[in-house]
Design brief:
The protein is an alpha/beta fold. The chain has 2 domains: 85 residues, Rossmann fold (3-Layer(aba) Sandwich); 132 residues, Rossmann fold (3-Layer(aba) Sandwich). It is built from 10 helices and 11 strands. The structure holds guanine.
Length: 293
């Protein structure tokens, strides 16, 4: 293949923020500033980095973002109590509990405590049910960002075979459902591969579109995909090297070999990552519009 089309999430995110400006201005004219409450439990370094970049983006856009940080040994009851307060706090239109939570906490119960109207992650079972049946709802940020990248570059899934690798509730499963829905951004035939799949590469080598969302550095290589494949790389992994920093960021796709086969590919960094944050802002603006209508 010749050079693949580089699907720049960074570029697409810029257009998302531009498109949000008039919506944010309309809200502010009514005295409403979209606000997000972020709950961070424990000291997982990756989670801290993600939360910091989310709140920095909100600040850059002059939106409200407040991070509530708790030690890993916070009790379930205390955490549920805090979410209950945030559900009723009119400053916040969105509530995000950064995942994963420490294993001592019941993640499902925490998610269920968030008001579905403020569930800008789209993780609450009410919103998951709506998504699954194709009804309008908050769509989880990373899958929503992936679909937005594809539509920005006029890449349609209609009739294509999409192979998603990784079945997380945050990315893989919702994306596989969205891609299969009967609507213009869906209509794909989907395969969801995971850690118990026999011969994952037998599936990826048949795919028109491969979404790598398993969290293993450079797992998908050129030899595992067809010529002309569209590759979406959700991974952000630190790979040790001899540089000054001691590591570099890499995706779940081995970019150099995969780029030789792909028609289009998302880079890491600058691909899916910036879109996750852009969709979080979009969902928060949407929540503010609905809650103050
Ligand atoms: N952890 C990794 N990705 C996400 C996300 O999109 N939302 C939340 N809440 N936690 C995450």
């Amino acid at each position: 293949m010749s050079q693949p089309l580089i699907l720049s999430g960074k570029e697409v995110a810029r257009t998302v923020y531009q498109d949000l400006q008039p919506r944010i201005a309309r809200l502010k004219a009514k005295g409403v500033t979209p606000g997000l409450a972020v709950i961070l439990v424990g000291d997982d370094p990756a989670s801290r980095v993600y939360v910091r970049s989310k709140s920095r983006r909100f600040e850059n856009l002059d939106l409200i973002s407040e991070t509530f940080t708790y030690p890993a040994d916070i009790s379930q009851a205390q955490l549920l109590d805090q979410i209950g307060h945030l559900n009723h706090d009119p400053r916040f239109h969105g509530i995000l509990v950064q995942m994963p939570l420490p294993s001592s906490l019941d993640e499902a119960a925490v998610i269920e405590a968030i008001s579905p109207e403020k569930d800008v992650d789209g993780f609450h079972p009410y919103n998951v049910g709506r998504l699954t049946s194709g009804q309008p709802t908050f769509i989880p940020c990373t899958p929503k960002g992936i679909l937005r990248i594809l539509s920005h570059y006029h890449l349609r899934l209609d009739g294509k075979h999409v192979v998603v690798v990784g079945r997380s509730n945050i990315v893989g499963r919702p994306l596989s459902i969205l891609a299969s829905l009967k609507n213009p951004s869906g209509n794909a035939t989907t395969t969801l591969c995971h850690s118990r799949t026999r011969d994952i590469f037998a599936h990826t080598s048949q795919a028109d579109v491969v979404v790598a969302a398993l969290g293993q550095a450079e797992f998908i290589r050129g030899e595992h995909v067809r010529d002309g494949v569209i590759l979406i790389d959700v991974g952000i992994n630190r790979l040790a090297d001899s540089s000054e920093k001691g590591y570099h960021l890499t995706g779940d796709v081995h970019f150099p070999s995969a780029a030789e086969k792909a028609a289009a590919i998302t880079p890491v960094p600058g691909g899916v990552g910036p879109m996750t944050i852009a969709m979080l802002v979009e969902n928060t603006v949407e929540a503010a519009e609905k809650l103050t209508a």
